[in-house]
Amino acid sequence: MGSRKVQKQPACSWVKLKNQVSSFGVGDNSHPQSPEIYKKLDELKKRIIEAGYVPDTSYALQDTDEEQKEHNLWNHSERLALAFALINTDCHSVFKFVSGILGRKIILRDAFRFHHFAGGNCSCSDYW
Question: Are 104 and 98 in contact (CB under 8 A)?
Fold first, then answer.
């Protein structure tokens, strides 16, 4: 690739909110809300680790130690985009989109009821 001057484009993730598209790259600090985004990521990381999450660094191809691999995983563009969406939209909508895009079932409890997100829909039929 080097001899042919071929360069791989870095991966990025986009989020569209209020007709404005925000783009995030790995470890991106260029967004005006970067401090808030990384604060939200740290909060999420603490909460899911407390819930039993263990990062899978086996797919991290960088020749670095485990701590650096975990750090790199937490700064993926997708996670930055998710944190941005969480601090700028209502969480209910974000969880619906995440369940649909990732094909995951998510159960969330608010002060009044349990919400079961699956396939981009919620069990409360958006009554919340």
Answer: yes
The answer to whether residue 1 is domain-embedded is: no
Is 5 contained in some domain? no
**Block means of pLDDT (10 residues each) for the chain, length 128 residues?**
74 83 89 93 87 76 72 82 84 83 84 86 82
Unique residue bearing structure tokens 């974000």: 94
d(CA 11, CA 13): 7
- Domain shared by 33 and 78, yes or no: yes
Residue type, 85: A
Q: What pLDDT, on the 0 to 100 scale, is given for residue 61?
A: 60
Distances (CA, A) of 113 to 24, 89, 95, 117, 121: 34, 20, 15, 13, 15
Number of domains in the chain: 2
**Parent domain of 97:** 91-128
